[in-house]
Design brief:
Chain A: It comes from Halogeometricum limi. Chain A: Keywords: Membrane, Transmembrane, Transmembrane helix. Chain A: This is Putative membrane protein. Chain A: InterPro entries: UCP026631, YdbS-like_PH. Chain B: Keywords: Membrane, Transmembrane, Transmembrane helix. The complex is a heterodimer of chains A (about 575) and B (about 160). Chain A is of the alpha+beta class. Chain A is about 40% helix and about 20% strand. Among the domains of chain A are: about 1-70, no CATH class; about 345-390, no CATH class; about 400-570, Roll (PH-domain like), CATH 2.30.29. In chain A, the strands form five sheets. A seven-stranded antiparallel β-sheet of chain A has the order 6-5-4-10-9-8-7. In chain A, a hairpin with a 2-residue loop joins strand 8 (about 245-250) and strand 9. In chain A, helix 1 (about 10-30) packs antiparallel against helix 2, helix 5 (about 170-180) packs antiparallel against helix 8 and helix 6 (about 185-195) packs across helix 8 (about 210-240). Chain A is globular. Chain B is α+β, with helices and mostly antiparallel strands and about 160 residues long. Chain B folds into two domains: about 10-65; about 70-150, Roll (PH-domain like), CATH 2.30.29. In chain B, the strands form two sheets. A three-stranded antiparallel β-sheet of chain B has the order 1-2-3. Chain B has a three-stranded antiparallel β-sheet with strand order 4-5-6. In chain B, strand 5 (about 110-115) and strand 6 form a beta hairpin. In chain B, helix 1 packs antiparallel against helix 2. Chain B is elongated, with a radius of gyration of 20 Å. Classes of the chains: A alpha+beta (about 575), B alpha+beta (about 160). At the A-B interface, strand 18 and helix 14 of A face strand 3 of B.
């Protein structure tokens, strides 16, 4: 295949794009009086026009040179890119190392039929290579070809289109719910910064006698307004970002599309998926919805906003059953049977919350002492029962589970995350025990992966489990990784698609195939098993509902409590 | 379980001394310039001395808590005084191995080995206080083990 060039249309587009931003910056600077051009009299406008056209010529010349100097080629093993006007750069990227191929088109680009393509690899601090801009067809062709070449097909040989299957489509109702549940606090923040100067102005209109009342009312109005604005902003952002969201499975890739104004189109090879995260909050749990995040190592740390990073490949919202089914499509996890930390863990959380309440009370007390008399400083103490309840829930939502090919952890109440890590993706296993944890014979086992979201300190972790269990968990994880790697060498395995059943069995000691795993409802406590709905609705949630007395209806799978370690010598403290 | 070279305590005590000196120096300057009424003149010395003693005790405790082991398939580290940390680094996941010698380390003739993985905690795995050729030896050993385990597709 010969080397290819960017789309010729990219020249005028880039000129306009670059020129536009400079003109906008100039206009802004002039309008705000940041500086004034040193032009006076009749010659002024003329000089301005002359300068502008000179700049325009330079831009056009540069972009033309950029276009002429830029070429790329897809060889059987590499993507070769030659680029650079002043400094030349030849880059060869091994195809096997490409993690994601992302296509993005904004409104203008869609109008003229251009798109930007970004190739992400693991490591490095930025996108490994980007093509600005090629036609949309070419971009899609690249995405497809790359997937095909990675599977080892020959170049250019137009084999039949790989069968693609729509895994997920965000329908209007879900989009509406997503909008309704989204808050974007950035907008009120910016507004606050803008108008914070005018507060004193406004308050000066009110007579002093009304002071406190006005202040309280004003704060209340402001808070309500801020919440409303952030709600509307969040809804708009969510709809704009996730309009027309679709997840497609094509051969061994996951492809997504989304966006109302700017369309994003990306591909994630199954064998690059590092971690799957199911996220929800009390509201979503109550209404039966959840969010799914797919992590790869392709997005470099600190690149872009959190919203535009690895979470691009996320299902923003879907009913819990759909999310679980999707997870099982991507990674045949089965139904996790979470094991909670020992009950004594709750004491730790009670203590932790009580300390917070104590600090707040102390602050209130000193405020009463020094500033306002008669202020009920003991009011925060009323929260102590809440601390106990909070501790219980925190404990209840923690857990971990070792599956056949995956370790699954669950943490968090207000932002509950269920993380699914294939054993094959484990990088390191870290066991930490703080002084306080040691007192209760507890430990936290963190499973580090190369995922990009994990940088926020949200690695999959079995938090506050029994110390003895932590020791064995550490060894177990290491052993499972060893087995997974060995199995992987015999053929791709254990991660994603079910195209190598023989290897799945290799790891699967129970001898159950993946499909059995998915269709068979978990055994009930009394040994009966429920009828499985034939339309693919998972029976899991119902089951959990019936089975676990204190579990909420949307806890994934059943949860069994760990014995309280009384057999390990009681917990005297 | 391998221990570190005992001389590593010298390094840690040394760095404790350096930070105690810095804090003491700042305090000294503050006391000199502002001469606050309630603070006796010996405060900087006391603070620096206290910090140094604490740092020295911590250095010894840290040395006792440290241990590493090159197992069949992984590198295992144990460390931490207040928070005990145990890390398992499978050889398949090793990206590259460094050995480094800081200025303090060179004074006492020690070196460290740093193991990098593709994990989000990159260079979290460092074995300090290896005597002389120990660091190079460990590095070479880890390298050979990592190559032997063929971490083909580490990400």
């Amino acid at each position: 295949m010969p080397a290819r060039r960017l789309s010729p249309l990219s020249v005028p587009y880039r000129v306009v794009q670059r020129g536009g931003s400079i003109v906008a910056a100039l206009a802004f600077a002039l309008a705000t009086g940041g500086f004034s051009l040193p032009v006076v009299g009749l010659a002024g406008p003329l000089a301005l026009v002359g300068l502008a056209s000179l700049v325009a010529v330079v831009f056009v010349a540069y972009e033309l040179a950029y276009y002429r100097r830029f070429s790329y080629e897809l060889t059987p093993d590499t993507l070769d890119i030659e680029s650079g006007v002043f400094a030349r750069r030849n880059r060869e990227i091994p195809l096997r190392r490409v993690q994601n191929v992302d296509i993005s088109r904004n409104v203008l680009q869609r109008a003229v039929g251009l798109s930007a393509v970004a190739f992400e690899t693991a490591g490095g601090t930025e996108t490994e290579a980007s093509l600005r801009f090629v036609s949309f067809d070419e971009a899609k062709r690249l995405q497809r070809e790359l997937g095909r070449l990675k599977r080892g097909d020959a170049v250019g040989e137009e084999s039949e289109e790989p069968t693609s299957e729509t895994l997920f489509e965000l329908d209007g109702r879900e989009l509406a719910i997503l909008g309704a549940l989204s808050f974007d606090f950035r907008v009120p923040g910016v507004l606050f910064l803008f108008f914070s100067g005018s507060f004193t102005l406004v308050t000066s209109y009110f007579p002093d006698s009304m002071g406190p009342l006005v202040a309280v009312l004003g704060v209340a109005v402001l808070v309500v307004a801020a919440v409303l604005v952030s709600w509307v902003a969040g809804a708009v952002v969510a709809v704009v970002n996730y309009y027309g969201f679709r997840l497609v499975r094509s051969a061994d890739e996951l492809q997504y599309e989304r966006g109302l104004l700017q369309r994003y189109d990306g591909s994630i090879p199954f064998d690059k998926v590092q971690t799957l995260t199911i996220e929800d909050n009390p509201l979503k749990r109550w209404t039966g919805y959840a969010t799914l995040l797919v992590e790869t190592a392709g997005y470099a740390p600190g690149q872009g906003e959190s919203s535009s990073r690895g979470s691009e490949a996320a299902v923003p919202i879907a009913s819990r059953e759909r999310v679980e089914r999707l997870v099982n499509d991507v990674e045949p996890v089965g139904t996790p049977d979470f094991r909670r930390p020992p009950k004594r863990t709750r004491r730790r959380y009670v203590a932790r919350y009580s300390i917070v309440i104590g600090v707040v009370t102390a602050i209130a007390y000193s405020a009463e002492f020094f500033l306002v008399d008669g202020f009920p400083w003991y009011a925060p103490l009323a929260l102590l029962p809440v601390a106990a309840v909070g501790a219980h829930y925190k404990w209840k939502h923690r857990g971990y589970w070792l599956g056949e090919n995956h370790v699954v952890t669950r943490n968090g109440v207000f932002k509950r995350q269920v993380k699914v890590v294939p054993y094959y993706r484990i990088q390191t296993v870290i066991d930490t025990r703080t002084v306080f944890q040691r007192r209760l014979r507890l430990a936290t086992v963190t499973v580090d992966t190369a995922g990009s979201l994990s940088l926020g300190g949200q690695d999959a972790a079995a938090v506050d489990i029994d110390a003895a269990d932590a020791d064995s968990l550490r060894d177990e994880l290491e052993e499972r990784l060893r087995i997974a790697v060995a199995a992987h060498r015999q053929g791709r395995v254990g991660i994603g698609v079910d195209d190598e059943p023989q290897v799945t069995e290799l790891v699967d000691e129970g001898g159950r195939s993946r499909d059995d795993e998915r269709e068979a409802p978990p055994e009930n406590g009394d040994g009966t098993s429920e009828e499985t709905p034939t339309d693919g609705e998972d029976g899991d949630t119902d089951d959990a509902n019936e089975n676990a007395d204190d579990a909420d209806p949307f806890v994934w799978g059943e949860t069994r409590d760990e014995s309280d370690g009384s057999d390990r010598g009681g917990d005297e403290t | 379980m391998n221990r570190l070279d005992p001389r590593v305590q010298l390094i840690w005590v040394g760095s404790a001394a350096v930070s105690a000196l810095v804090v003491g120096g700042i305090l000294f300057a503050v006391v000199r310039v502002f001469s606050p009424p309630f603070v006796p003149a010996w405060t900087p010395y006391a603070v620096a001395g206290g910090l140094f003693v604490l740092g020295a005790l911590l250095a010894v405790a840290r040395y006792r808590a440290w241990g590493y082991e090159v197992r069949d398939d992984s590198l295992y580290l144990e460390r931490g005084v207040f928070t005990q940390v145990r890390t398992v680094v499978p050889f398949v996941r090793i990206q590259h191995v460094d050995s480094s010698r800081g200025p303090l380390e060179r004074v006492v003739g020690l070196a460290s080995t740093v193991v990098y993985t593709a994990g989000s905690r990159g260079a979290d795995v460092a074995v300090p206080g290896l005597a002389g050729d120990g660091a190079d030896e460990l590095r070479e050993r880890l390298k050979r083990l990592a190559i032997r385990s063929e971490g083909d597709d580490a990400v």
